Amino acid sequence: KAGVTQTPRYLIKTRGQQVTLSCSPISGHRSVSWYQQTPGQGLQFLFEYFSETQRNKGNFPGRFSGRQFSNSRSEMNVSTLELGDSALYLCASSLSGEENYGYTFGSGTRLTVV
Amino acid sequence: GEDVEQSLFLSVREGDSSVINCTYTDSSSTYLYWYKQEPGAGLQLLTYIFSNMDMKQDQRLTVLLNKKDKHLSLRIADTQTGDSAIYFCAESSVDSNYQLIWGAGTKLIIKP
Which residues of chain B have pLDDT under 50? Predict the structure, then answer.
């Protein structure tokens, strides 16, 4: 079956712009989580969506937002981009977010802010 | 808050066994995971273990859990060049709403 698909793979934006990243989970998976990965901070949890509702949220400013659609696809939006937002953004899906076999990750979207 | 720690680098010779270690602080940890990340790629779940288990073996991978010391290890037998990657330890629990708490990752370097 198809894995977790993230688009686009690479993105270059300038400071002050906004960006939208997309994640299509594995078919049947209803939980989608987003992570930011940087060399300095490692993997940091952004938020999790389940059945179109944000269920958990990490410690990121309000510039970071997301949503989930009825088909479980999720989008993440970052407004007023800062240089420090340059990172690999990873999306992960699971059936319900509570299984014992972990999450399946996409290949990520590498965002560069210049 | 909860914390997961790993050493940043491990260097082994091709054909030897690699042992990557991880310690965690959350005493309510329910599930513990090992993920692998190759350059430019996402994270691949390698294996996981329940907190009520001591050991799990899956082909070349052996996971050992010492719950008393909150220590988790991943042994890779007969390490190959294709095992070069960053290995992340992560844990989750009911208390954390099953959100993954991640270590910083251990970069495995294979020497010929």
Answer: none
Which residue matches tokens 């309510």?
A: B28
Task: Nearest by CB to A102, from B42, B48, B105: name it.
Answer: B48
Mean pLDDT of A15-24: 98
Cβ contact, residue pair B43, A101, below 8 Å: no
B88–chain A Cβ distance below 8 A for any pair: yes
Identify the sign of the CA torsion B18, B23, B29, B34: negative
- Indicate yes or no: CB of B41 within 8 angstroms of CB of A107: yes
Chain B residue closest in CA terms to A40: B104
B48 vs A14 pLDDT, higher one: A14
Burial class (CB in 10 A: 0-12, 13-18, 19+), A36: buried
Distance of CA B42 to the CA centre of its chain: 16
Q: Which of residues 5-64 of B touch A (CB under 8 A)?
A: 30-31, 33, 35, 40-45, 48, 50
Q: Supply the DSSP symbol for A40.
A: T
Task: Report whether B10 contacts B86 (CB < 8 A).
Answer: no
The residues near B57 (Cβ < 8 Å, ≥ 6 apart) are B63
